[in-house]
Design goal:
Distance between the termini: 58 Å
Order of helices and strands: HHHHHHH
Structural class: mainly alpha
Number of strands: 0
Number of domains: 3
Shape: elongated
């Protein structure tokens, strides 16, 4: 029963794959072969599909591990069978290359693809592909340092300005308050050296928050 279900599922996958292939073929009818060729050259130059090189080998390893764990007594048979079937499917990499070429051809014109290929086949283009990730890491590091610095300086600048404005507002409120009533002659006058009460400036909150 399990094998029947597996066969039916495989048939469904094949049917779906056939439909997708037909749809891709239909959408590619308006793209010339020279355009596709230029797209293939471009994706080869930019290494557009290199990231997918390990998909089939990874699937091979994962399937072996799964089947051997469930059937340890069939380890040698499982390894030989999975390897053999993996080799048979290696040719399907061409399907991916064609789909990626079509995707590029739909977006870029043939002359543009030729220009892309020419640049990435040049010394500058090859160096960009090779050292680009290193530059990207350095850019990210520089941007992080810059972000911390500008956030810190913005917080300090805003804090100083707010403190200045709040202090000015408090002083203005004190100067605008009504004069104190005259004291009775029997009430002793405050000593000359007694300090007049100073208005308290509200303490600003949130300016000591850690800079992200």
């Amino acid at each position: 029963m399990h094998f029947v279900f597996s066969v039916r599922r495989a048939a469904a996958v094949v049917a779906t794959t056939a439909f997708v292939a037909f749809a891709s073929h239909a959408s590619a009818q308006d793209i010339s072969e020279s355009h596709i060729k230029a797209a293939r050259a471009a994706i080869s130059a930019v290494r557009a599909t290199d990231a997918y090189d390990n998909i089939l080998p990874a699937a091979n390893i994962a399937l072996k591990q799964q089947l051997i764990q469930q059937n340890p007594d069939l380890q040698e048979m499982i390894i030989a069978t999975v390897d053999a079937e993996t080799i048979k499917m290696a040719g399907r990499r061409a399907d991916l290359e064609r789909e990626v070429a079509l995707a590029y051809a739909r977006v870029f014109s043939e002359p543009q693809l030729n220009e892309i290929a020419a640049f990435y086949q040049s010394d500058a283009g090859k160096k960009l592909l090779t050292d680009g990730p290193i530059v990207a890491r350095e850019v990210a590091k520089a941007a992080e340092i810059w972000q911390r610095g500008i956030s810190r300086d913005l917080t300090e600048a805003v804090g100083k300005e707010l403190e200045s404005q709040v202090a000015a507002q408090v002083n203005s409120n004190v100067s605008d308050s009504p004069a104190a009533p005259a004291t009775d002659s029997a009430t002793p006058a405050p000593a000359d050296d007694a300090a007049a009460p100073q208005p308290e400036t509200p303490e600003l909150q949130g300016l000591d928050a850690p800079i992200q």
